[in-house]
Amino acid sequence: MQKFLTTKSIFLDKQTLWLFVCFVGIRIISFALAGHDLIQAMILFALMMVFAMLYFKKMEYAFYILLGELLLGGAGHFLEFYGLSMRTILVFTFIFLWVAHHISTRELQNRLYIDRKIFYIFFSIVGIAIITALLGLSYGNNATNVIRDLIPFSYFLLLLPFYHLFQEEKTQEYIIRLLTVFLLGGVFFSLFVYFLYSSELGVLHDSFYQWFRDVSMGKITDMGLGFFRIVAPEHLLAVPGILFISSLLMRDEKHHKAWRVLLTLGLLILVLNLSRTYFLAMVIGFLVLKYKHSWKRWFRITIGTFAVYFLLLISVSLISSFGTSSGLGMFGFRFLSMATPQIETSTYTRTALLEPIFMMIKKHPVLGNGLGSEINFFSPLTYEQIKTTQFEWGYLEMATELGILGLSIFLIVICFILYELNKKIQSLSDYHDFYVGLLAGLIALLVMNFTSPILYHVLGVFCLVTIISVVVKPISIFEKVLPLLYRIFNKKHN
């Protein structure tokens, strides 16, 4: 591997800095333009024109912008064109241009070729999405809600261009820089928001809070003693990222210190998020990482990772509370509420949703109630009847909207991905850490989907599409990926 250690670092590149500037800049611009719909529309229209021109100049340039928005654009609503998010506009523009371009050049048939099993299952998912969308409209579900639920499924269409475009080495290097900036930016932004409210420079329900909740789609919760939960949709990728890095570190060789820095930053995101589901998913993910790893390396990295997690939790809590709280009591209370829901608002409300959800499933068990379904439940806190599209239970929401048939097809896709990942792992006599990390990350997402619609989420679908694009490739693709892993942080030697 000496030749990889004498090649220029992928991370230490000016493109990384520019990506971080974009990460921060889009958030500043979005906050500054909040409420200025006309200006946002003008900017997005200009961006769409530039995006289209770049596509025809070189398709990869438009693809890079799309990937950048997916990973650096948070929930995708930082800029909107009268209700249409920047992410939705870019995704559908790219898909339209990709299909139109390949039809005009008569290359569409070749570009539609991917592994036949994935091809059939992929179109089954798209078919189920269309059928349940039509069912939702026929059942009288709100059209806006139907479209909102349909959009994440449409991202599966990206599988076709992703499958072909991921092959280029420059694209792979760009994705690596994006992922590292995604993690660095996520920590930076979470710490900024945390400091803003923990220091009392900001107060709940101020203008920034409103922007963070309504545009960034995040949550800021005062947990007491100066600790604030900072939750953002993009945090769902932190757990798979932590597991993937940990899998690489479990390989018995010397690793660059930057890998451990990235791992620590990912853990800091989870500490500030303080999600029970994410923590449990991480625990189960680490159990999966034992697969093909030695007991010694697995135990060392696992214990070390959780030790760092609790050290960060205690440190942040002590600093925020001026030494009066270690945060362990708050952490324990969060998990105690899972057994005793009545002691916490979120778990109490979530349990109140179960009975009406099961009633809806019984109403249309096979094909479901259609996309855009709403649930009526009696709030045990306000003693009011509430109507919402937020089911809070991922698999039950899928069963409610897609029916048993749709849920089964979705799970078949997942099982096939798991099967293909395991096949790749078994076929490698060495360097299986890459695929084991992907396997653990995918299983973590499946765990997280129990209490959150992760597989319904745009980033969840993006993660699935990315993994599918990797696993359906022949094992020879790993020969190209391996050098990239060694080159991420290595300095250039003259």
TrEMBL record:
Q: Which residues form the O-antigen ligase-related domain?
A: 263-411
**Main location (coarse class):** membrane
InterPro entries referenced in this protein's UniProt entry, alphabetically: O-antigen_ligase-rel_domated, WaaL-like
Which UniProt keywords are present, listed alphabetically?
Membrane, Transmembrane, Transmembrane helix
Localization, UniProt: Membrane
Query: Per the record's keyword annotation, is Transmembrane included, yes or no?
Result: yes
Question: Pfam families under this entry?
Answer: Wzy_C
List the record's Gene Ontology CC terms alphabetically: membrane
Q: Which PANTHER family match?
A: O-ANTIGEN LIGASE, TEICHURONIC ACID BIOSYNTHESIS PROTEIN TUAE
Q: Indicate what this protein is called per its UniProt record.
A: O-antigen ligase-related domain-containing protein
